[in-house]
Amino acid sequence: MVNQPWIKRPRSASKRCCAAKRLEYRAGAFVELPSIRLENVFVRYDNRDVLQQISIDLDEKRIGIIGANGAGKSTLSRLLNGLVLPTEGTVHIGELNTREHAKQIRRQVGFVFQNPANQIIMPIVSDDIAFGLKNLSLPKNERQVRVAQTLGELNISHLADRETHTLSGGEQQMVALASVLAMRPQTVVFDEPTTMLDLRNRLAFQKEIAKLSQRAIVVTHDLEILEDFERVLVVTDGTIAFDGPPADAIAHYRQWSHA
Amino acid sequence: MVNQPWIKRPRSASKRCCAAKRLEYRAGAFVELPSIRLENVFVRYDNRDVLQQISIDLDEKRIGIIGANGAGKSTLSRLLNGLVLPTEGTVHIGELNTREHAKQIRRQVGFVFQNPANQIIMPIVSDDIAFGLKNLSLPKNERQVRVAQTLGELNISHLADRETHTLSGGEQQMVALASVLAMRPQTVVFDEPTTMLDLRNRLAFQKEIAKLSQRAIVVTHDLEILEDFERVLVVTDGTIAFDGPPADAIAHYRQWSHA
Amino acid sequence: MEPRMIAANNTSYLARIKPGWKFGALLVLSIALYLITNWTVLLALFIFSAAILLSARVDFKQLRLPLISITIILGVVFILLGLQTDWLNALRSVLRLLTMCLLAYAVSLTTKFEAMLELFQQVASPVRFIGGNPAQIALALSMTIRFIPELKKVYTEVREAQHARGLANNPLAVTVPLVIRSLKIADETAEALDARGYDSEPAKRRF
Amino acid sequence: MSRNPSSSQTKNTVYIAVFAAMIAAMGLLPPITLGIIPVPITLQTLGVMLAGALLGPWRGAMSSLVVVVLAIAGLPLLSGGRGGLGVLLGPTGGYLVGWVFGSLVIGALFKYWVLRRTGNAARFASGLAAVVIGGIGVIYLFGVPWTSVVTGLDLRTSLIGSAAFLPGDVFKAVVTTLVALTVHRSYRGLMS
Ligand SMILES: Nc1ncnc2c1ncn2[C@@H]1O[C@H](COP(=O)(O)OP(=O)(O)OP(=O)(O)O)[C@@H](O)[C@H]1O
Ligand SMILES: Nc1ncnc2c1ncn2[C@@H]1O[C@H](COP(=O)(O)OP(=O)(O)OP(=O)(O)O)[C@@H](O)[C@H]1O
Ligand SMILES: O=C(O)CCCC[C@@H]1SC[C@@H]2NC(=O)N[C@@H]21
Ligand SMILES: [Mg+2]
Ligand SMILES: [Mg+2]
């Protein structure tokens, strides 16, 4: 659905690094998404292990992350686009290393946060989405096309000229998503994206995620939206306590929570 | 921490007001709760009806409010302690009118906001809880007793001397609740109290609410926590579209959301 | 780094003197210093102030940074002033400043933060005659302390969110959401104060 | 308007506190050091300018004042974690006094001049002028002579020394103007 022939190939990176996996975009779907690989990752704050010895490959297109408050979910998700660097170990996106290729990784891995107010800059919705595109040094007319296209894909074209801060929480959340998708990342990480949404908007959001051609990695306390995911990780005390299909993962987590 | 004996005492408000129903606080339970009555209430912003002609009596001890984003739930809940005044119509708590007896009503109806961080005003937990008590012009030693008592009731005595900003989301929520309960209100209104909590904390919070001797009115998108409530209102486009037992209300809301 | 009270556990004789007296003495001495031109007297006063600081058993770890900073700035001042006027004059000036700073730190490090605030509130209490409200000042001061870590958190969150758009180093992209969120926090907190029955005197003057 | 207006005084107090906290938080980012001289080139002036431009003269000045008072009272809020009476009596103390009057002047100019202008160019030009007058002119007006009095350096040298701050302050003034005008477009009536 999302049309993106202009996806950046990890160009310059390939110079420094080895044979970066080439990505071909064909008929609306990625033939292949670079896999995300964590090797022996530790994250420590003040000598406390927040994540411990995590080794994992993420290849699926729909991955959920659940777990208790403070378990390390947000930290894990932030590792994936280099917002957090591992204290020990490495995180690779395809051939790129978050430690060395921060800039390219940022373009490949988009991030949508819980509080959309953190992300919204301009008073008018379409200006806000265009703002980030200036950074990609797209020419002005292409920017406009891209903005309109992204809003259309998310079915929020009617918001284009609205004032950002008068939007409801749910609408703001959609605008924040649009501003990230406009950059055409290959992977989008969501950290608790539905906390302020009502049931209807949650269903709509769930549908949007299902339609995304990008890989989606969703951290959430809202277990229902993970139903049709391929894989769900349960994080407990800085380790991955369970890793499998959603129904089993959710059962595991519920059991743990009632204990 | 900062000592402020110069805080203004609320002067004799009771002079202006009529025969407020006397409430006895006995062995942790109120003998009688005054009923909450909305008569023909409209709330308008910029000539737009956010709530339309609402007439309703709230007598139950556990009342839920659900509905879509922007439906008017928060506005409805804010009417109950005078944070929002009706554009037309009246809101009575017992014999008190929110328009005329704002001050007494604030004492009777406590409010816990979605984001506890914005509700905590003082740098240290016990000071924050004492803050509201100063507004009641309780003498200092009584304040201390009341603070300790409230912390004990909620099983968070160990937090008394913590700096508020170092608390986790769940702990902040408990402190916000404590600071409201310390004022011994008869009714506590919650606007989306569990959005940032994990399953375990949500269960714990649910238990706290079940134990409250006060009336609890809870606005939420988290339908599970309403299971053992007595009554649930579904707000749709500024009107009360359904009013009844939780199972039926939730079914109604789900159906509406999927439509 | 979190704001922390500097004079947390000082129990020396200086800590027992009322803050008002310490402040008053500091003020008088500071003015006196500018009237003194004899460099030997100034040197003696400098040694005296160092002795006071030492005798107050202050926590010198806290003084490291400020002292380094002031020493370097005064070094520059000394050289410039020496070249422009004469070296004796430069010495006088530097001695004066050092004395004043040492005494100021002696007061700061032996006065509890709360006591200091209370003194300020007493000093500020006449504002009520021009329509101010001392209680509001007290509340503003404590709320500021409470919100500093909160705003640091907001700043980090905004940086992170913009990082994902490649805008983490764009001043506009970081500052606008920071300000908007601060305003929202303020609105919500004002509402929460209301809900908790906080009752400010009706405003006597418009802000 | 049916929302029960939080007593405007309560609201003002909270605005003052939140912006004071913002100014303070900006000081916790590391100061730049020019060579070996640790001149406090600090982001805090950005906060001071913003407080005036967004909250208006009175509340803006109060925000700055609160920061200065807390710093003098001993909280390590100034760049490099400094605080205590020494910062006021030291060579850069005048700038701190200048903060209060700087945000006052910026606020007054925004309220009575900048926000009444129409057209983007006119707003930007007047906004920048306001921030430069208040945020640089007024602050230096206190800071420069203070340095001179306290150290005994002549005014010219003190003025030349202050030039170290100038490039940063001009940049902050531009950012403040852009941010303030953008936010005023989103949050109308902030100063009414
Ligand atoms: N920058 C930091 N400095 C110190 N400790 C941190 C930092 N970031 C996270 N932590 C700590 O790491 C632990 C894991 O935090 P994280 O935010 O990853 O949890 P989470 O699973 O996302 O929780 P929640 O469900 O509440 O969002 C927590 O104990 C947290 O306090
Ligand atoms: N102060 C205000 N000024 C103008 N419009 C307002 C104001 N407060 C609320 N509204 C509008 O009133 C409507 C109802 O808002 P309200 O916050 O009550 O919704 P809600 O049901 O709580 O939604 P949510 O689930 O998103 O919290 C919304 O359209 C909102 O934009
Ligand atoms: O931290 C202090 O001791 C006082 C800081 C004074 C800094 C002044 S304000 C104007 C000028 N611009 C800066 O960035 N720093 C100085
Ligand atoms: Mg998290
Ligand atoms: Mg709401």
TrEMBL record, chains A, B:
InterPro entries referenced in this protein's UniProt entry, alphabetically: AAA+_ATPase (IPR003593), ABC_transporter-like_ATP-bd (IPR003439), ABC_transporter-like_CS (IPR017871), ABC_transpr_CbiO/EcfA_su (IPR015856), ECF_ABC_transporter_ATP-bd (IPR050095), P-loop_NTPase (IPR027417)
GO molecular function terms noted in the UniProt entry: ATP binding; ATP hydrolysis activity; ATPase-coupled transmembrane transporter activity
Keyword Lyase assigned: no
One Pfam family matching this protein: ABC_tran
Keywords noted in UniProt: ATP-binding, Nucleotide-binding, Transport
PROSITE patterns noted in UniProt: ABC_TRANSPORTER_1, ABC_TRANSPORTER_2
ABC transporter domain ranges (all copies): 36-259
One GO CC term on file: ATP-binding cassette (ABC) transporter complex
Family from the record: Belongs to the ABC transporter superfamily.
Name recorded for this polypeptide: ABC transporter ATP-binding protein
Source species of the chain: Glutamicibacter mishrai
TrEMBL record, chain C:
Lineage: Bacteria, Bacillati, Actinomycetota, Actinomycetes, Micrococcales
Pfam families listed in its UniProt record: CbiQ
Domain of life: Bacteria
UniProt keyword annotations, A-Z: Membrane, Transmembrane, Transmembrane helix
Membrane topology: Multi-pass membrane protein
Predominant cellular place of this UniProt entry's protein: membrane
Subcellular locations according to the entry: Membrane
Protein name: Energy-coupling factor transporter transmembrane protein EcfT
Keyword Membrane: yes
Sequence intervals crossing the membrane: 23-53, 65-84, 90-109
InterPro entries referenced in this protein's UniProt entry, alphabetically: ABC/ECF_trnsptr_transmembrane
GO CC annotations on file: plasma membrane
Organism field: Glutamicibacter mishrai
TrEMBL record, chain D:
Cellular compartment(s): Cell membrane
Main localization category: membrane
Membrane topology (UniProt): Multi-pass membrane protein
Membrane-spanning intervals of the chain: 12-29, 35-55, 62-81, 93-114, 121-143, 163-183
Gene3D superfamilies: 1.10.1760.20
Family the UniProt entry places it in: Belongs to the BioY family.
Record keywords, A-Z: Cell membrane, Membrane, Transmembrane, Transmembrane helix, Transport
Molecular-function GO terms, alphabetical: biotin transmembrane transporter activity
Protein name: Biotin transporter
Protein source organism: Glutamicibacter mishrai
Pfam family, one: BioY
Entries under InterPro entries matching the protein: BioY
GO CC term, one of those recorded: plasma membrane
